[in-house]
Amino acid sequence: MRILRAGDYKTMPWKNGGGETTEVLASPPGASLNDFDWRVSMATVAADGPFSSFPGIDRTLSILDGAGMTLSIGDGAPVTLETTSPPLTFAADAPTTAWLVDGPIRDLNVMSRRGRVAHAVERQKAPAVLPPRGTVRLLLALGELTIAIADQRHDLGPLDCILLEADDDRTLAVEGAGEFTLVTFAPAAIG
């Protein structure tokens, strides 16, 4: 189990150079934008424009704050994401363009290498009890929360995370009145 503090995340340029991304965590440790198995990051989007392309990657996007943005993904109909929208999963190698609804937004971006790792992203409200799933679990606090695990308690501030590896079979009790995002990673199904 690891606690990740928002102040310790690293910021780097977007792959297409159009802005900056704040990396929460990537696997394996030290992986670049070209060779990660999975990656969790946040970005402030301040202008309309194209998304970076990530060949062979699946992406899930959700809005953390701001009025939202409309996405055009491949040949599909435009989709508008707001803070109340469920996370949207799509191929990160599909041509994607974003238009801001009303000013800058901050998003949460979860990516995994297609065929190697599968991910899921769920937005939930505390209090909640999260049983083990046999997957890597990353809980991102969206407000002030306390996590009880076994006989330990950990306070999380906004955008802090707790990470549990797949073999950690402990149950998490999430206390407080805030929301959080639960991200899980598991080996992709074969076949």
TrEMBL record:
Q: Which InterPro entries match?
A: RmlC-like_jellyroll (IPR014710), RmlC_Cupin_sf (IPR011051), Uncharacterised_HutD/Ves (IPR010282)
Query: Gene3D superfamilies annotated for this entry?
Result: Jelly Rolls (2.60.120.10)
What stretch or stretches form a coiled coil here? none
Short name of any one Pfam family annotated for the protein:
HutD
Question: What domain of life does the UniProt record list for this protein's source?
Answer: Bacteria
The protein's name: Environmental stress-induced protein Ves
Q: Which organism is it from?
A: Rhizobium halophytocola
